[in-house]
């Protein structure tokens, strides 16, 4: 059985993520461990952790992922922003450990045109610091759509994994980001090439999650626009081809699609996704 779920809200409290996942027909999930647009983080209460964990067990849900704040930028030259990014990630990982989350997924950030080479040493140091201050829950780097300045191409991820050299540093690949970055997921040969690249870069064994999103923007457009499953440029056949590749078939699928009226992943999307596996 494949784990398929979506990003769900914890509005009202952490245990609401369970109901929200049941409602959309998911069997795994992703949440924000606080507001995605505010730096403020507080520990989950013991009561909500207990209720959440018993909900996970009762429903036999698979992995729980936490998505970090969108404000995080580990490549920032602004000391204050870098410090806030680091502190929020440590808090998210600590909260993650308490709810037995697989890991906290982050968009690494932007070098604002300065180039990856000018920030890579800072990234290695800050990631090592975050991992050093935490335990029991991993840090998961997500690939980007290749927007100008945004860090997260496969060679960049490979560089960071190698230099940080910590087994708790993992990878998440987003199908919409891959497509916008130029990987044509509609083509079997392009998928095979991608898998080979993942092997060559030693990323394949570190891959723990796929973000399953269709893509509104064109191939190689470098624009990060998620579409509902089957409603974007990748389409059902492309997504199906990719997620069922033998090297990827064990990976949980997390949808971050707009759903209806931008309410997020819904039953219709999860049902379509389950039909692909
Ligand atoms: Zn994503
Ligand atoms: Zn995205």
Automatic annotation (TrEMBL):
Keywords (A to Z) from UniProt: Endonuclease, Hydrolase, Nuclease
InterPro entries: AP_endonuc_2 (IPR001719), Xyl_isomerase-like_sf (IPR036237), Xyl_isomerase-like_TIM-brl (IPR013022)
Top-level lineage group: Bacteria
A GO molecular function held by the record: DNA-(apurinic or apyrimidinic site) endonuclease activity
GO BP term, example: base-excision repair
Any Pfam family: AP_endonuc_2
Family matches, as Gene3D superfamilies: Divalent-metal-dependent TIM barrel enzymes (3.20.20.150)
Statement: the UniProt record of this protein carries the keyword Hydrolase: yes
Signal peptide: none
PANTHER family on file: APURINIC-APYRIMIDINIC ENDONUCLEASE, ENDONUCLEASE IV ENDODEOXYRIBONUCLEASE IV
NCBIfam families hit by this protein: nfo
Protein name: Putative endonuclease 4
Gene source species: Candidatus Woesebacteria bacterium GW2011_GWA2_44_33
Lineage, top ranks: Bacteria, Candidatus Woeseibacteriota
């Amino acid at each position: 059985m494949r784990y398929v779920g979506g990003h769900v809200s914890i509005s009202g409290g952490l245990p609401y993520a369970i109901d929200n996942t049941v409602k959309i027909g998911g069997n795994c999930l992703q949440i924000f461990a606080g507001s995605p647009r505010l730096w403020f983080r507080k520990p989950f209460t013991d009561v909500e952790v207990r209720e959440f964990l018993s909900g996970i067990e009762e429903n036999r849900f698979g992995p729980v992922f936490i998505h970090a704040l969108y404000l995080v930028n580990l490549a920032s030259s602004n000391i204050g922003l870098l410090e806030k990014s680091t502190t929020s990630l440590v808090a998210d990982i600590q909260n993650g450990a308490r709810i037995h989350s697989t890991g906290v997924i982050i968009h690494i950030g932007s070098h604002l045109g300065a180039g990856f080479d000018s920030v890579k040493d800072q990234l290695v140091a800050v990631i090592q610091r975050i991992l050093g201050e935490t335990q029991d829950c991993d840090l998961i780097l997500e690939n980007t759509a290749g927007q100008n300045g945004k860090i997260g191409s496969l060679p960049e991820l490979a560089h960071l994994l190698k230099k940080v050299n910590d087994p708790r540093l993992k990878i998440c690949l987003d199908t919409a980001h891959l497509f916008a970055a130029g990987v044509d997921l509609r083509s079997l040969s392009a998928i095979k090439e991608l898998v080979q690249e993942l092997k060559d870069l030693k990323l394949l064994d570190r891959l723990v999650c796929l973000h399953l999103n269709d893509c509104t923007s064109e191939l190689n457009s470098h624009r990060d626009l998620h579409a509902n499953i089957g409603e974007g440029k990748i389409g059902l056949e492309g997504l199906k081809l990719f997620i069922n590749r033998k090297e990827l078939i064990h990976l949980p699928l997390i949808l971050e699609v707009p759903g209806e009226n931008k309410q997020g992943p819904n039953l219709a999307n999860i049902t379509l996704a389950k039909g692909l596996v």
